[in-house]
Design a protein that fits this description.
Elements (H helix, E strand, L loop, with lengths): L2 H24 L12 H8 L13 E4 L5 E5 L4 E5 L4 E14 L2 E12 L2 E4 L2 E4 L3 E6 L2 E6 L17
Antiparallel strand pairs: 1-2, 2-4, 3-4, 4-5, 5-6, 5-7, 7-8, 8-9
Keywords: Signal
Protein name: DUF538 family protein
Length: 160
Amino acid sequence: MTPKSLFFFSTTLALLILLIPISAQISDPNPKPTQSLSAAHIELTNYGFPVGLLPSLVHGYSINKTSGDFSVELGGDCKITLPPDNYLATYSRTVRGKIVSGKIVELDGIRVRALFRWWSITGIRSTGEDLVFEVGMVSAKYPSKNFDESPDCEGKHSSS
């Protein structure tokens, strides 16, 4: 090696040695898993609802921005356990309703088991901190933070 090429080589090596610790500091040694959100989940947040109202596995959705009518396709029936009281809920292959800011009405396709029978959830209201689930004339209020993560359907994987 000539003195000029030796200088170039040692300078390059020194720069690489300096850059390696910098790049090690930038990368997170314990990256947190991120939840992959569908466009339907993101649409929920646009109307003031948490993503956890829908299961993680969403195959498609449609919404009429004028009327608020929506349809969410799950690709099959889905069972989940709803927080915080561990109610068993079932989602039909298709969930339909009408959504406006902070309110879902005419909801069809979500049922919950409580008091030894199945009840259809007909509406959901969001106050920001709380969600109010309507079952006909009866309602139940839960903290929105219980629905910050979208649950997986029991017995199915969200990677499909």
